[in-house]
Amino acid sequence: MVVAVEKKFLVDVTYNGVTKPIEVRPEERVTALLAQAIASFGITQNPHLLSLYREDGTVVPENESVEQAGLKPNQLLLLRPNAVKGGEGNLLRLGSNIVTTSVDVLRSCGRGACECVVYWTGPVGEDVADAVDHPAHLRSAFGYEIDSNWLTQFWKRLAAARRGVKAQVHTHPAEAFHSATDDRWPIVSQAGFLSIVIPDFAEGESTLERAWIGRLQSNGTWQELASAAEALVVA
Amino acid sequence: MIGTDALNRMILLCRDCVASELSDEQIAQAFHQMRVLCVADRTNLSCHSAQTALVTLVSLLSRMGMQVELRIPEVAMRRAQPPFNGSEIRTALISASKRLVPHATIASAAEGNAADIVFSLGSSEVDCGTVPVWRMSGADWSGSIHSAGGERTPMWTTEWPIGGMVSAVLAANEAFKFAMRRLPLRQTSDEIFFEPATACSWDFGALSLPANGSIDLGRVDFISGGAITQAALYVLTRLAGAKMQGRVLDDDRTALSNLNRNMLSMVEDVDVSKVDVIVSRCSAHFPLEPVPQRFEPSRGTTIQLAPRVIVGVDDIPSRWAVQREAPGWVGVGGTSHFSISSSSHAMGGPCSGCLHPLDDPDQRNPIPTVAFVSFWAGLSTAVRLIREALGSAYPGERQHLWLTPLRLDQRHAAIWSPVPPLRNCPVRCAASRSVA
Fold it and tell me: Is B316 within 8 Å of A83 when comparing Cβ atoms?
């Protein structure tokens, strides 16, 4: 007879000085534990700013499972604000070919007539973008629409490889700016996410000199940055 | 109608939990209506630690807008207690009535007892019927409170004042929670944060003081003239034998909304430069130089920082800037809603950038805080400076303290931790560069 063993265990989460046990499963994502802790304490004020910390001062990575994060039964975790989520991120370090590759793709796909988009991806937990992903999409001079099947496979592929989307880069027919649609529908809605808009269907120089660059804030608004140097550095 | 401007940061903090429909006036009223009786007899009030405990408690209560009544004898002050003037403690406190925060009175207690809660120092006798009473006590580096009726509290004889200030801030926390329990909360699950403690204590860790009683803090720069700096200097001015040459950097003027937490400021200081207020209040203790400007190297500020720096500024990029330029030890104190963060950073070790790696845009909005939380941040950071000066800095596993005073009676309300070096440290400190 096969007996299924439930591997649930309790961790102690402390918030505002009060400690509560939270039940977790090893395969559960830390994000689920975090959400459970936030719900358990009934936190409604800026819950997106909270993270879990170990007693050694390290933050528990949210992209990992409870098991991968090394959490043990009865381990004490501190639930407290993490400015990492506050919006203003570290410099994103780009592989040396990322900008030119992106512009080449945007230019060849758009052919001077259509908008196009690429995503910069990199390892989860690192401020690094080392690959360019070009989605399957419908296109016109006025916008683009990502193929939903491609998007599903994209997310699966990223999750398996422990990678994430660091920035989205798309083109406009003329002026570079963030439209209301751009504001509302970034591929990632997490504070700190970068969006870059390249003018003239990327027909100009292969740089970000004339690009619009913005960072998503914790309140959902986009902060326009004065230059690429405020957000990006070529590694 | 009462003014709420002086309490607006505390009201903002209360809004973390109180029912949304409450007006600012209703929240302020709950605190203004609080009557707190402080009791001490001559024997217990004769030592500097107990005097400091009383003065600190009265100050914290008043800065929350509460009405304070004193049942104490007139006793000569053992040592000056800025911002209070005078040589006798009762007169000094009463003369500060409505001057710490408008509408917050400090008066001798009338016959009978109409107080909501009572605090009694040491073994001072108190009989207030069914009114909640907490007894306060303090040792050199630790303080505690416990509900009357429990164990007997010893007579207060300590001179070193840190434990006295600990007991005061523990007591002020109970007063705050009492007021909060009178307000409807947004959700019942938050009630646990405001439950009273029957006993509560805190210990910064025993440390031997020099035999000659002298502590040379050296040259110290204070970045910001706000609540953390004022609390730290409030603490340091109470240390007999402490010597220091310092500077305070800030370009801001005192606002009415600062009075709820700026421990060296009074109503008459509104619109006066913060650095001038601080320097004038500390002049009898330390030679401090006012520097009426921000520390902004990126904007051309050229100031060679002192070997020791206390950073009380909320702006996280400013903390990075200080850390980059500091030639030696850096102590950082800050608050986040009901919690405080205090850390120290020696040369070569993980820096404040490793601990606070990214900016928090929320810090640019009015910051919710309350007197006793800000005071905890300044007190714990001042203790770090004292320990550093005495050559007994906390070990690495205590480099950071995250403390939530509301339920300090709970086991995990304060957590000491190391500061791990961070590969993406914005300061690019030496410790971060060593991370593979």
Answer: yes
